[in-house]
Design goal:
alpha+beta, Arc Repressor Mutant, subunit A, 4-stranded mixed sheet, 9 helices
Length: about 180
């Protein structure tokens, strides 16, 4: 067994991605060296020079590291899917665990992939979307601040007001008053 390659697998070394792939005989799954799956037993590991070689030996691609796709693609795909969920369903009570359930992944893996692709967290992206919706409603609708807060996905009007003040530097009422005055 190639000791350098084995150490690359144990250390999840990204530098060896596309240099080789490894398969686990007991599961017939093959991965990139950087895959964060559990360390296999050394005696069950088989090394391959290409994806085709692994497939020809009867192994199937790992659904976690997606060895057939470039790394950036998997991260970007997850980020796009989360952003689509946020855009369509921002008012729902999202948590990392819920994003994980929707994508059939661990919440921590979702967090890492989203963060690598966007340099922010799913929670911050969700908050930004909710604030964007709330700002539009504050300017366009005559609904109460509490109704706007609940429609945008905040737990309560008080929670919304404190978050809005922290992020915008003014209260929702001040924002509405200032911006409605400018448009008249």
């Amino acid at each position: 067994m190639n000791e350098t390659w084995w150490q690359a697998v144990v250390n999840c070394d990204q530098r060896f991605d596309s240099v080789f792939y490894y398969g686990v005989a007991t599961t017939t799954i093959f991965c990139k060296p950087s895959c964060r799956s559990r360390d296999p037993r050394q005696e069950n590991v088989r090394f391959f020079h290409s994806v085709d070689e692994a497939r020809n030996k009867g192994f199937r691609a790992c659904k976690r590291c997606k060895p057939e796709e470039p790394k950036w693609y998997a991260d970007t795909e997850i980020a796009v899917r989360i952003n689509e969920l946020i855009d369509r369903r921002y008012a729902e009570p999202w948590t990392l665990a819920r994003f994980g359930e929707e994508l059939h992944m661990s919440p921590y893996h979702v967090q890492r992939m989203f963060s690598r692709a966007t340099n922010t967290s799913p929670a911050k992206a969700l908050l930004a979307r909710r604030l964007q919706v709330a700002r539009q409603e504050l300017l366009g609708a005559s609904d109460s601040i509490t109704d706007i807060a609940l429609a945008a996905g905040f737990r309560s009007g008080a929670h919304f007001s404190s978050v809005f003040l922290k992020e915008s530097g003014c209260t929702p009422s001040e924002y509405r008053l200032t911006h409605q005055t400018r448009t008249r």
